[in-house]
């Protein structure tokens, strides 16, 4: 059962209306009118006085309309929350956290915009709390954001803070500086007898990371770019002789370094052995 109302009516939990048992008049209520207070009728929300329109349908009283004044005791809370300590933190080029406190449990919402707080608002966080945090996202970079915090207490009293501002930083300038780096074939060996080699790469970039490397043996035609790594396999092409490998390093913005290079001698021909002494068939020593 809900709270009592006058003239034989009761209001049930959930918001239904009914006549008190034993009342001679059969009736239903049409269009309950809650003229003050907040929340659903009969849901336990604190409400102040309200007026309900009912239509009596029993007997000759059909179509008669009556007004019933519910006897809900007021919650007594007519004071909106006091909002304080409103602040913006964690500001990035596109987002920020807005925090504030209230002197009583209340909801959380932020109204914000590029010229006034009335342009957008976050969804209401209905959890009643005294410390509040709301994240704003999708903000324009390099702009001032005007905002205010809003909280509603359990009785439906809503308060907003004064207008505040913060500025999102401008986006960083584009990266136009290429990486720099070096390449070493087989850890800097002077010669090798195998075409299969390992390139040791060492490169840095102003952005903090090198993204790509591409290599060549003539400095003109480069193999497809691949993800930068500290070492990659490479096959020395062509016949034996002095080989040069060129490496260019790329960053995420698409800047490429000038080529770094290293050389190595590829020599896959084993030395020829010729016994020059003694000559074949020579006889040494005295008589057998
Ligand atoms: Ca209050
Ligand atoms: Ca760069």
Task: Tell me about this structure.
The chain is mostly beta strands. The chain has 3 domains: 9-69, no CATH class; 83-167, Immunoglobulins (Immunoglobulin-like); 180-266, Sandwich (Immunoglobulin-like), CATH 2.60.40.10. 0% of the residues lie in helices and 42% in strands. The strands form 5 sheets. Strands 6, 7, 8, 9, 10, 11 and 12 form a 7-stranded antiparallel beta sheet that branches. A hairpin with a 5-residue loop joins β10 (144-152) and β11. Mean pLDDT is 79; it is low at 1-74.
Q: What characteristics describe this protein?
A:
single chain; 288 residues; mainly beta; Immunoglobulin-like; seven-stranded antiparallel β-sheet; 20 strands; rod-shaped; disordered N terminus; binds calcium ion
CATH superfamily of the largest domain: Immunoglobulins
What are the distinct ligands in this entry? calcium ion
Helix content: under 10%
What's the overall average pLDDT, rounded? 79
CATH architecture of the largest domain: Sandwich
* Poorly predicted parts: 1-74
Largest sheet: 7 strands, antiparallel
Shape: rod-shaped
* Radius of gyration from the alpha-carbon trace, in angstroms: 43 Å
C-alpha termini separation: 136 Å
Number of domains: 3
CATH class assignment of the largest domain: Mainly Beta
**SSE class:** mainly beta
List the topology elements.
Blueprint: E1 9-11, E2 17-19, E3 27-29, E4 51-56, E5 64-69, E6 83-89, E7 96-113, E8 120-121, E9 125-136, E10 144-152, E11 158-160, E12 164-167, E13 180-185, E14 191-192, E15 196-204, E16 212-216, E17 226-227, E18 231-235, E19 241-250, E20 260-266
Parallel strand pairs: 14-20
Antiparallel strand pairs: 1-2, 3-4, 4-5, 6-7, 7-8, 7-9, 7-10, 10-11, 10-12, 13-15, 15-18, 16-17, 16-19, 19-20
One calcium ion is lined by residues 175, 177-179, 205-207, 251, 253, 255.
